[in-house]
Structures are given as C-alpha cells and as structure tokens.
Design brief:
The chain is mostly helical and 112 residues long. It has a domain at 11-75. It has two helices and no strands. It has helices at residues 8-38, 49-98. It is flat, with a radius of gyration of 28 Å. The relative contact order is 0.05. The model has no long low-confidence stretch (mean pLDDT 83).
C-alpha cells in the first residue's frame, strides 16, 4: 500500500474526485431511503424473483414520475407567475401613459 503524495498539487484533484464520488453516493442512497420510506420498497415480499423485480421497477418508475411532475409544476408555476407579473407591469405602464401629468413612472398608478 502506497502512501499518499505529499505534494498539494497532486492531492487536490484526488480529494475533489473523492468528494464528488461521495456526493453521488449520498444522493443515490438518499433516493433508496426515500423509496423505502414513502413507497414501501422495503416491504417487497414476492415469492418469485421476477415479481419482486417488477415491484421494484414500478416503484422506481413512480419515483421518476413524481420528480418529473414536480419539475413540470414548478415550470408551470414560474410561467404563470411571469405572465401575471408581465400583465401587471403592462397595466401600470398603460395607466401611466394615459395619465395627463408628466410624473416619473412608478409602480403605483397615476391619478389624473
């Protein structure tokens, strides 16, 4: 067994790679833990191996579908929020353009 190199320039990439590998493992183990807790992956009691594999595959499919649904809902919520903000800004701009006084544009509507 070799001793690690004393040179920091050689150690830094190795430490970074070990840290990245550990982060990936933690994420994967976290997903398995979520599958066991929320989707009963730890309670698969099938008599045949093929049935157990099917149950596990369905659980993983549901995990992926839940993630995709969450991403889709976040995207749609962002889109709705952006549309509402744009609509509100257009209303404020229209009110300020229709205003007869030449006051600086603010987010509060002008009163003529």
């Amino acid at each position: 067994m070799d001793r690690p190199a004393q040179d920091e320039a050689l150690q830094a990439p190795l430490k970074r790679q070990a840290w990245e590998d550990e982060a990936i493992c933690v994420a994967i183990e976290g997903k398995f833990g979520q599958a066991k807790r929320r989707f009963s992956l730890g309670r698969v009691m099938a008599k045949r191996a093929q049935t157990a594999q099917t149950a596990i595959a369905i659980t993983i499919l549901v995990l992926n579908l839940e993630r995709w649904l969450r991403c889709l809902l976040a995207f749609l919520l962002g889109l709705v929020t952006l549309t509402l903000v744009r609509f509100e800004l257009m209303n404020v701009l229209q009110q300020c353009l229709n205003c007869r006084s030449r006051q600086p544009v603010s987010l509060r509507p002008c009163h003529a």
